[in-house]
TrEMBL record, chain A:
<feature type="transmembrane region" description="Helical">
    <location>
        <begin position="511"/>
        <end position="533"/>
    </location>
</feature>
<dbReference type="InterPro" id="IPR000515">
    <property type="entry name" value="MetI-like"/>
</dbReference>
<dbReference type="InterPro" id="IPR035906">
    <property type="entry name" value="MetI-like_sf"/>
</dbReference>
<keyword id="KW-1133">Transmembrane helix</keyword>
<keyword id="KW-0472">Membrane</keyword>
<keyword id="KW-1003">Cell membrane</keyword>
<dbReference type="InterPro" id="IPR032550">
    <property type="entry name" value="TM_PBP2_N"/>
</dbReference>
<feature type="region of interest" description="Disordered">
    <location>
        <begin position="1"/>
        <end position="30"/>
    </location>
</feature>
<feature type="transmembrane region" description="Helical">
    <location>
        <begin position="62"/>
        <end position="82"/>
    </location>
</feature>
UniProtKB/TrEMBL annotation, chain B:
<feature type="transmembrane region" description="Helical">
    <location>
        <begin position="136"/>
        <end position="157"/>
    </location>
</feature>
<dbReference type="InterPro" id="IPR035906">
    <property type="entry name" value="MetI-like_sf"/>
</dbReference>
<feature type="transmembrane region" description="Helical">
    <location>
        <begin position="41"/>
        <end position="62"/>
    </location>
</feature>
<keyword id="KW-0813">Transport</keyword>
<keyword id="KW-1133">Transmembrane helix</keyword>
<feature type="domain" description="ABC transmembrane type-1">
    <location>
        <begin position="99"/>
        <end position="297"/>
    </location>
</feature>
<keyword id="KW-0472">Membrane</keyword>
<keyword id="KW-1003">Cell membrane</keyword>
<dbReference type="InterPro" id="IPR050901">
    <property type="entry name" value="BP-dep_ABC_trans_perm"/>
</dbReference>
Length: 543, 312
């Protein structure tokens, strides 16, 4: 939105094309700098500064994907706004960039992740995983010399200083140990200790207690190579060198445990695996083909909840549309009588649930349906003990009932609109032909109404199919099934299942599986929308 | 049933004879009940159903700040009138912060949506260029897939963007706004496109002959003429963003950064002692702007709904 051009373009300027109308001031010339151009220049400077900053930080963070995207945006934006051609693009580019990045790209990325094992234990690259494994498996070097360690602080960052072989070295968690200039050292040999370093503040024991970080958790890499191990301290005054129990053999691509002699070879699932099947974690991301899709139907723990969830999602979507439409239509017919008084007043009342924010209604209903303390049980039913949201079947009924409350006003509105669009003379004709009110409703009203509202009913199905807030706020998918790793329950719908697998699962988040399920939802929504799409007139508007 | 006959004084060839029925009061009531009365009965029955949760929230918010969902018993409606929960809400809780977050996020998103959507609609409506039909079709297809379906990938994208641009990372409102703006074109450009097409092209042509550039036509002529639809799209976008839960929930993990939807969810579902009065007061405050906007927009929403939300 910020890079919108206000500048008049040269080629449409009449002075240039020689169509200057009479009376037009001569000074209005293409080469004149107009205020609009200055605004454009200023906005472009800001946009470019932002993008160049992004390119530099992408390089330093080695985020090549982000880098490629940023460079592409930089080139396109500058070309579009400084070119004299591509006028439509000047209006389309801002919206398109956001659309492409945050809607189209994320969909494509979902498809990509669906074919990988991306998840909590496979979230990094192979090189990062090798480093990480070596770090996690570090222990004190058997014959480690002890170093007199000084804790140093600069700009809030903690560094460790030691004297190694007569050389003063300083390093932090981000910077490996390196010789440092300007250190004052006292003592000799193994007793040598850094007293102070220029630019750093040496911390005494009392200072250490006041630090926000725990110095015993800090790992200072010995060198750039993670195989060299690290410097750690247990008390803030003595440093010990730790090395990994695992060494990586780059030529063979294997990890060897130097203590036990076990060799871990690279498996085809993005991790090192020992002959007995034990896996070294973290692993890394690899392509796993259709495995995530296959797991939905074959994995012993997942297949059954997935099938149940899929079935309930369809039932929920279908029944939601059916019940809300039936209620909305009945009310619309009821109040569609010209002679009825206070119709506007009833109408305003009836659409209140639609005007009230849906997430709030769902939360209020959830409280009212609470088994032990809720209003429904306590007051309306005089102290009943009905588990409205705790019993698998009742919870489904409650969800449909609450969704009926939430959804009927929409159906009431569209049915009223469609009813009023039906010409009244056909009813007169029907009456003359001897049709009663029920016959004319069934043979005239309903068919004509359905033609008008079917696309909206299909859209409503697609909406309810993915009605995450309602399910999550009412029951969080519960009551839970027994024995599945993702806490799935009998009222979970596909999208809430995806949420549980990708967000709520603590240490076992599985983005690959979640994305594969998202793709399943995409396909279903796509098919449903395609059916609705064929019934709308939207296509006619493209000309 | 007694009948009388009267002759109408209408001019005609032959006098028409109407039969007018004179009804007894009982008969009149029966007829009224059959034709209209039951409609009122249905209406009166619906009112408590419609109002129940809303009145319940209102009454809970007036019970005083200590009322919880887990207290012994007292869920009875309107037993107290204590405004101190509202006072507490604004002085002692994070709620004002959440409200501000929601206002800023939804406000900027609404403005951005209007600007980007109207610019795109202008391009599609007023220029003929290669890829125009394809672009419109693509927009229609993209519009079928709600952005929130890709929330896993959105989360992963934001995490990697955050390494490069810290303000586009998790727990940052700029990231949330950028994501919502990503859905702007897909959901609204088509609605605006239909409306822009109703502005006569002769107007721009006249302006062009007078020497106006395409930018001048856009900013000074078209945008003024389509102001009503801009307002509607902006307000619809505001209400839509206000109600988003899943994306905000995934991206905002620190209490101070929550939107109203995420924050009130945390209150309403807090285990053991649910701050129910506090939640109810928050819900009442949170619902007011939306209900006002809705009443204001009602006729646009209704006409948009029945026209398949496309035709202006």
């Amino acid at each position: 939105m910020m890079d919108r051009s206000k500048a008049p373009e040269a080629e449409t300027s009449p002075a240039r094309t020689g169509q200057s109308p009479p009376g037009r001031p001569e000074t209005h010339h293409a080469r004149d700098i107009k205020p609009g151009f200055l605004v454009k220049l200023l906005l472009m400077m800001l946009v470019n500064a932002f993008l160049v900053f992004g390119i530099m930080s992408a390089v330093s963070a080695q985020a090549w994907g982000v880098l490629a995207g940023t460079v592409a945006i930089l080139v396109v934006v500058n070309w579009v706004y400084f070119s004299r051609r591509a006028i439509p693009a000047k209006y389309l580019v801002p919206g398109l960039i956001f659309l492409l990045v945050f809607q189209v790209f994320v969909m494509a990325y979902t498809a990509y992740v669906a074919f990988t094992n991306y998840g909590t234990s496979h979230s990094i690259t192979r090189d990062q995983a090798i480093e990480r494994i070596q770090e996690y498996n570090e222990r004190q070097m058997p014959d480690s010399p002890t170093y007199q360690l000084t804790v140093l602080e600069r700009d809030g960052e903690i560094s460790f200083g030691i004297v190694d072989g007569g050389v003063a070295k300083v390093g932090s968690a981000d910077e490996p140990l390196a010789p440092v200039e300007g250190a004052t050292v006292t003592g000799e040999g193994a007793g040598a200790r850094i007293d102070s370093v220029e630019g750093f503040r040496a911390l005494g024991f009392a200072d250490l207690l006041g630090l926000p970080e725990d110095v015993t958790k800090i790992r200072v890499p010995w060198s750039d190579d993670s195989a060299d191990g690290s410097l750690r301290t247990t008390n803030g005054t003595i440093g010990l060198r730790n090395v990994s129990a695992l060494t990586y053999d780059a030529a063979a691509g294997t990890m060897t445990n130097v203590e036990t002699g076990v060799v871990y070879t690279e498996g085809d699932r993005g991790s090192f695996v020992a002959p007995d099947g034990t896996e070294l974690l973290p692993g890394w991301r690899v392509n796993v083909g259709f495995e995530n899709f296959a797991r939905m139907v074959t994995d012993g723990k997942l297949a059954e909840p997935f099938a149940k969830t899929m079935a309930w999602t369809f039932v929920f979507g279908f029944l939601s549309v059916l019940t809300t439409f039936a209620a909305g239509l009945l009310l619309a017919v009821t109040f569609n009588n010209m002679r009825m008084r206070s119709r506007a007043w009833y109408r305003a009342m009836l659409i209140l649930p639609y005007a009230f924010p849906g997430f709030l209604s769902a939360l209020i209903w959830a409280g009212m349906l609470n088994t032990s303390f809720g209003y429904i049980n306590q007051e309306l039913l005089g102290g009943a003990d009905i588990a409205w949201l705790g019993d698998p079947v009742l919870a489904k009924v409650s969800i449909l009932a609450v969704n009926l409350w939430l959804g009927f006003p929409y159906m009431f509105l569209i049915s009223t609109g469609a009813l009023q669009a039906i010409p009244s003379d056909i009813y007169e004709a029907a009456t003359i032909d001897g049709a009663g009110p029920f016959r004319s409703f069934r043979s005239l009203t309903l068919p004509l109404l359905l033609v008008a509202v079917t696309p909206l009913l299909i859209a409503s199905f697609a909406f309810n199919f993915n009605n995450f807030s309602l399910i999550y706020m009412l029951t969080s998918g519960g009551p839970k099934f027994v024995g599945n790793e993702y806490n799935l329950g009998s009222t979970d719908i596909l999208i809430s299942m995806v949420y549980k697998i990708a967000v709520e699962a603590g240490g076992t988040k599985d983005y690959g599986l979640a994305s594969a399920m998202s793709i399943v939802i995409f396909v279903i929504v796509g098919l449903v929308s395609y059916i609705g799409f064929r019934k709308t007139r939207q296509l006619e508007e493209i000309n | 049933m007694s009948t009388t006959q009267i002759s109408p004084t209408t001019s005609g060839d032959a006098p028409v004879v109407y039969e007018v029925t004179q009804l007894t009061p009982n008969e009149r009531f029966a007829r009224w009940a059959r034709e209209l009365g039951w409609r009122h009965l249905v209406g009166l029955l619906m009112i408590p159903i419609v109002l129940l949760p809303i009145l319940f929230a209102l009454s809970m918010s007036l019970k005083g700040p200590t009322a919880s969902l887990n207290g012994v018993g007292d869920q009875r409606m309107f037993t107290a009138f204590d405004l101190s929960t509202y006072e507490m809400l604004f002085t002692e809780t994070v709620f004002p912060r959440w409200a501000l977050n929601s206002l800023i996020i939804c406000g900027i998103t609404a403005i951005g949506t209007v600007l980007m959507g109207s610019a795109a609609a202008y391009a599609f409506s007023r220029f003929r260029f290669a890829g125009r039909r394809g672009g419109l079709t693509a927009l229609l297809i993209v519009q079928m897939f709600p952005q929130m379906l890709a929330f896993v990938a959105i989360f992963l994208l934001v995490r990697s963007l955050g390494e490069v641009y810290p303000f586009l990372g998790e727990n940052n409102h700029v990231a949330l706004i950028a994501i919502y703006l990503g859905g702007a074109l897909g959901s609204n450009a088509f609605l605006m496109y239909g409306f822009f097409n109703t502005v006569p092209r002769e107007l721009d042509e006249a302006a062009k002959i007078d020497g106006a550039s395409h930018a001048q036509i856009f900013w000074t002529i078209i945008l003024r003429l389509v102001l009503p639809i801009l307002t509607v799209v902006g307000l619809l976008s505001f209400v839509g963003t206000y109600g988003d839960f899943i994306i905000a929930k995934v991206l905002m993990t620190q209490e101070n950064n929550y939107t109203i939807a995420v924050g009130l969810y945390q209150w309403a579902t807090r285990p053991l002692v649910t701050p129910w009065a506090q939640f109810a007061a928050g819900a009442v405050i949170a619902a007011i702007p939306v209900i006002i906007l809705f009443m204001f927009l009602q006729k646009y929403i209704v006409s948009g709904l029945t026209a398949g939300s496309v035709k202006g």
